[in-house]
UniProtKB/TrEMBL annotation, chain A:
All copies of domain BPL/LPL catalytic, residue ranges: 38-229
Xref: PANTHER family: OCTANOYL-[GCVH]:PROTEIN N-OCTANOYLTRANSFERASE, OCTANOYLTRANSFERASE LIPM-RELATED
Ranges that cross the membrane: none
Pfam families linked to this entry: LplA-B_cat
Keyword annotations: Ligase
GO molecular function: ligase activity
Species in which this protein is naturally found: Thermomonas brevis
Name the UniProt record assigns to this protein: Lipoate--protein ligase family protein
Length: 258, 110
């Protein structure tokens, strides 16, 4: 039944060249709203990062999560996304990030827990073909025996659902700890001792270049659900660029939870 | 009476409390106390909440409550203040209450 749901849609792939962090935040909003309005088919967007960033969740305190001196020292931009969840440390080439924007009928009738696992079932299948036994770890993580691989965040926007995921490919854990304040309380219920193990790199587990992991993911999605190559339209891109400038790159938004 | 930057004021130092909800996400509360009341409450964390304006509703519902409110009373105030269509994942009124209590208690000791 669940496979049939995916096949009800004409899935599109957007995989553009490197783009700035604030533009990625804006593209998620614009593309999901276009899907909600019925103007765009459901879309898988694979992100490429033009520069390093810390991406904090919609409800996280900027002051509590980010070390401003560490971020400045490493020239790392801080942006806030529209979804909840935790802070991510991004350097171009060290993470694999993607978004799914789909009509809410894709996850109709599912609990949050079910919809998170459902939206990433194809990723677990792709990882399995690369020799990684991974599973969905509620609430919003993809994990393997070696540690956490990815974190997901989801929200409903009008008649659409946005689900986006950042996977750790080759995180510089030492640098991450200089930039993020990772609370002991947060780690208290995890069976792990160090923050390093929370971002176990995909690179060491697959031995493959990042581009090959992404290619395998796209192939897996395409053969399971169907996927036609696409790009953001000129209008979508123009709206996202405006939104990046007027919202996501502004201190008013980044510090909306100070 | 506290002295902040040379200015006498009634507000105590802000208290900071954190609570990792079992099976849920981290809820953080930063709380300022004036006299016997919560003068300002800022809840944050890596939870999921829709609509996002519900965060302001939670802060507003807690602000002004007596500082000795127990966790049950704090949770009831949060629940009563939520917009009717609120969706929560990884957070609950009871978890917010625990974080706020920890902030008050920690702030009192500081």
């Amino acid at each position: 039944m669940s496979e049939a749901r995916w096949r009800e849609f004409d899935w599109r792939l957007i995989h553009a060249g490197p783009q700035p962090p604030a533009l990625h935040m804006a593209l998620d909003e614009v593309i999901t709203d276009e899907v909600a309005a019925g103007r765009r088919p459901p879309t898988l967007r694979v992100w490429e990062w033009a520069s390093p960033a810390v991406v904090i969740g919609r409800f996280q305190s900027l002051r509590n999560e980010v070390d401003p001196e560490g971020a400045a020292r490493h020239d790392i931009e801080v942006v806030r996304r529209v979804t909840g969840g935790g802070a991510m440390f991004i350097e171009p080439g060290n993470t694999i990030t993607y978004s799914l924007s789909a009509p809410e009928s894709l996850v109709a009738g599912m609990s949050f827990e079910q919809s998170y696992a459902f939206m990433d079932a194809w990723v677990l299948a792709a990882l399995r073909t690369l020799g990684i036994e991974a599973w969905y770890q509620p609430l919003n993580d993809i994990a393997s025996h070696a540690g956490k691989i990815a974190g997901a965040a989801q929200m409903r926007r009008g008649k659409a659902v946005l689900h986006h995921v950042t996977m750790a490919y080759d995180i510089d854990a030492a640098k991450m700890l200089e930039v993020l304040r990772i609370g002991r309380e947060k780690l208290s219920d995890k069976a792990i001792q160090s923050a390093n193990k929370r971002v176990d790199p995909l690179r060491s587990q697959t031995g493959l270049p990042r581009g090959e992991v992404i290619a395998r993911m796209i192939d897996t999605f395409r053969s399971a659900h169907g996927l036609a190559d696409d790009a953001a339209s000129a209008d979508e891109l123009a709206r996202a660029e405006a939104l990046a400038r007027t919202k996501f790159a502004t201190p008013a938004w980044t510090a909306i939870v100070p | 009476m506290a002295n902040v930057n040379g200015v006498e004021c009634n507000a105590a130092m802000p208290g900071h409390g954190e609570y990792k909800m079992p099976g849920g996400k981290l809820v953080v509360a930063d709380v300022e106390i004036a006299g016997d009341r919560l003068a300002r409450v800022a809840v944050s964390g890596d939870f999921f909440l829709e609509p996002d304006s519900a965060l302001d509703a939670i802060n507003a519902a807690l602000t002004g409550l007596p500082r000795h409110s127990d966790a049950e009373a704090l949770a009831a105030a949060v629940q009563a203040g939520l917009p009717p269509d609120t969706l929560m994942y990884g957070i609950a009124p009871e978890a917010v209450a625990v974080a706020v209590r920890r902030a008050i208690d920690g702030g009192a000791e500081a």
